[in-house]
């Protein structure tokens, strides 16, 4: 028998799993997967978060606090010192000055190495300490007469994970980079030459590359990759859109009469903006491809009427609509508003929330399944488990900013399985600057309600320090004595419903002691659903004067007689949230006020934020400002990680690239879909697979 020769190994390709690299086994590959690194290409696109400059020696006299540097010098003195914590301290000197190296954990060997007279080279961050500038636990080595060579590149510092050292990741990235040097194996065939150059540069910049430019993200290599990354995100959303539009949807075109009767039954004429948007919707809905439309409208712009109109168009065509709200409170509020609008037109609604009692829930589910309900309102509970719809042809998602991109896409995927998919209308009150919106929602058409219903009186906002709390309480009392109502909103930094509820309870109690003649209500996230609904109904009916609440009232509360809102610890909230909250007042014809109560001292951004709130009532102005102050991650909501989790690009910094990204994406998708696919895969490959799993 001739011993079988092992088959020649196939050349390693960038798309191969990392386990094809020497020394990468299943344990390491699992750790890499935590960083979304699955194939070899993913290593190339795992870019350094920052760099260290170990290419040159900094004179000790030139060290600055906060900066990391390589120094070389002679140990002058070394001793164990007993401060608050025992430490080993050695003074190191070169011709230009002295600095201390301090070790809190040290061995006898280290004490011997760092004895007076030793020449050492250290790398570390200089900080101000007890003896002047100090380096805590720097990396160090004792050097002989011949100093070892310095690094010839800036040292990349990668995002790492537990059990995976910087050192290990660096050598893996180097292995992957090495594969790029052998294009003969066909490895690099899917990467453009300038992308390869940019990747090589960013994994190991030569010393001439400006660290400042790298830190600012303005280096041409970063800009090249940022463009590519934004393109990938944009393409993937456009692709999701095309995939949806490969499906058919039920054309909804027979609701004109119902819509007309609805208009006539409303106590107010529609605004021109509402008219226009309803027109846009009805054209979309009449088509046999699924509508995918985002409706942006500032708080109070009247999005609910538009939602009702869309539901009527569906109902007129014999189809059912589902309306999904982010909170129970908002779902209930919608049911209370939409029920009375639809009933006179012979249509009924169902409400499905997670907190309903079993019997009630069953009954509402039955209304839904039989089609007796033309409009089904609920929280995300709508799309979980046992709910059967009847001829569901339209899904409306309210306050999109509370949900993530992934949730939106997941909802869609649910429809995709059935062949015919529902039309989708996504509504948001978070006004996103247009270029950003185009990127965040590239898969959606955009409608804007850019006009508020007439008769609104702008809210006057004042900013007041906690020390004037008593005056504010007096103001609440005066407003309520005049027959108006007020909100007192309690906020906390920690996202803890329990603590927040506790704070609201305490505040309600204290205010109750001060304002003995007022009827005070309390609502927070920990109340049972029906209890919350009862308090809200009482406030709406006017039998509660002052509503103490947590931020649960951010959306979905509509009491025109409430004309005063106090927001405690306003400095802790973001602009978007403050704007949402403030939108609860100014809904009637009396002049409304908002008091932003803050805890001094204010940080610079805190001050700036409150100033913006005082000076503007315009959601778009506020959004632009928010973007500047906080960056798009927070503006779009941290939950929307799908978009915001960018590696090199930064939506705010690179927003100038967005128009070109949009144009290129459209062109690429129609002219070179294979290339589009490659770009998506290199940036999002393993992540999109994840999302679809
Ligand atoms: P949002 O866009 O914040 O969801 P709503 O739909 O809750 O706003 O509407 C806010 C208030 O404005 C509601 O009381 C609603 O009845 C009222 N409204 C809506 N459209 C008009 C209109 N065209 N004229 C007058 N009031 C309107
Ligand atoms: Mg609304």
Textual characterization of the structure:
It is a single chain. By secondary structure, the protein is an alpha/beta fold. It has five domains: 18-51 and 156-218, no CATH class; 56-150, OB fold (Dihydrolipoamide Acetyltransferase, E2P) (Beta Barrel), CATH 2.40.50; 227-245 and 655-692, no CATH class; 256-449, Rossmann fold (3-Layer(aba) Sandwich); 459-616, P-loop containing nucleotide triphosphate hydrolases (Rossmann fold), CATH 3.40.50. It contains 24 helices and 21 strands. It starts with 25 loop residues before the first helix and ends with a helix. The model is unreliable at 632-643 and 688-693 (pLDDT under 50). Adenosine-5'-diphosphate binds at residues 268, 270-271, 274, 297, 299-305, 429, 453, 558, 587. Residues 268, 270-271, 274, 297, 299-305, 429, 453, 558, 587 line the site of adenosine-5'-diphosphate (ADP).
């Amino acid at each position: 028998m001739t011993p079988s020769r092992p088959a020649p190994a196939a050349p390693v390709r960038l798309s191969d799993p990392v386990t094809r690299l020497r020394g990468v086994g299943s344990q390491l590959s699992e750790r890499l997967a935590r960083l979304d690194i699955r194939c070899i290409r993913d290593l190339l696109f795992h870019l350094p978060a920052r760099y260290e400059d170990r290419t040159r020696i900094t004179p000790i006299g030139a060290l600055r606090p906060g900066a990391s540097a390589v120094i070389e010098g002679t140990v002058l003195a070394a001793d164990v010192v007993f401060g608050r914590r025992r430490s080993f301290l050695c003074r190191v000197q070169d011709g230009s000055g002295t600095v201390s190296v301090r070790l809190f954990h040290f061995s006898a060997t280290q004490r011997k190495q760092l004895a007076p007279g030793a020449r050492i080279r250290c790398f570390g961050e200089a900080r101000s300490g007890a003896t002047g500038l100090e380096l805590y636990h720097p990396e160090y080595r004792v050097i002989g007469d011949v100093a070892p060579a310095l690094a010839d590149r800036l040292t990349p510092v990668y995002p790492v994970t537990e059990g995976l050292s910087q050192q290990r990741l660096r050598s893996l990235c180097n292995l992957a980079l090495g594969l790029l040097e052998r294009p003969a194996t066909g490895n690099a065939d899917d990467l453009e030459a300038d992308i390869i150059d940019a990747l090589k540069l960013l994994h190991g910049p030569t010393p001439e590359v400006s660290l400042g430019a790298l830190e600012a993200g303005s280096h041409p290599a970063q800009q090249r990759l940022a463009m590519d990354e934004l393109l990938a995100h944009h393409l993937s959303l456009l692709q999701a859109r095309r995939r949806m539009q490969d499906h058919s949807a039920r054309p909804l075109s027979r609701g004109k009469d119902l819509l007309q009767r609805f208009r006539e039954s409303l106590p107010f004429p529609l605004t021109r903006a509402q008219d226009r948007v309803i027109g846009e919707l009805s054209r979309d809905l009449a088509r046999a491809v699924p509508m995918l439309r985002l409706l942006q409208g500032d708080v109070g712009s009247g999005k609910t009427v538009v939602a009702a109109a869309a539901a009527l168009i569906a109902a007129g065509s014999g189809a059912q609509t589902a309306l999904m709200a982010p909170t129970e409170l908002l779902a209930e509020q919608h049911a209370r508003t939409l029920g009375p609008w639809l009933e006179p037109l012979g249509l009924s609604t169902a409400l499905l929330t997670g907190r309903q009692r079993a019997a009630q829930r069953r009954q509402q589910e039955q209304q839904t399944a039989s089609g007796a309900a033309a409009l089904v309102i609920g929280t995300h509970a709508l799309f979980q488990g046992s709910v059967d719809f009847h001829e569901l042809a339209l899904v409306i998602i309210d306050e999109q900013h509370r949900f993530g991109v992934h949730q939106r896409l997941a909802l869609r995927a649910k429809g995709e399985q059935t062949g015919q998919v529902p039309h989708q209308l996504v509504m948001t009150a978070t006004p996103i600057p247009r270029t950003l919106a185009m990127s965040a929602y590239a898969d959606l058409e955009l409608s804007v309600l850019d006009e508020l219903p007439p008769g609104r009186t702008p809210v006057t906002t004042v900013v007041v320090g906690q020390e004037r709390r008593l005056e504010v309480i007096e103001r609440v009392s005066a407003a309520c004595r005049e027959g108006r109502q007020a909100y007192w909103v309690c906020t906390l930094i920690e996202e803890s419903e329990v603590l927040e509820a506790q704070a609201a309870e305490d505040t309600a109690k204290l205010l109750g002691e001060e304002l003995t003649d007022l009827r005070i209500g309390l609502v927070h996230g920990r109340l049972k659903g029906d209890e919350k609904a009862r308090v809200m109904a009482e406030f709406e009916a006017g039998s509660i004067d002052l509503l103490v609440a947590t931020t649960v009232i951010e959306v979905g509360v509509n009491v025109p007689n409430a004309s005063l809102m106090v927001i405690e610890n306003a400095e802790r909230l973001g602009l978007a949230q403050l704007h949402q909250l403030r939108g609860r007042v100014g809904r009637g014809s009396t002049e409304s006020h908002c008091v932003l109560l803050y805890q001094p001292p204010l940080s610079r951004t805190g001050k700036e934020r409150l100033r913006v709130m005082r000076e503007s009532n315009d959601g778009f102005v506020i959004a632009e400002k928010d973007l500047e102050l906080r960056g798009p991650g927070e503006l779009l909501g941290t939950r929307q990680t799908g978009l915001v989790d960018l590696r090199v690009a930064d939506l705010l910094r690179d927003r100038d690239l967005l128009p070109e990204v949009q144009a290129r994406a459209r062109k690429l998708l129609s002219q070179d879909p294979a290339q589009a696919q490659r770009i998506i895969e290199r940036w999002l490959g393993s992540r999109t697979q994840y999302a679809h799993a």
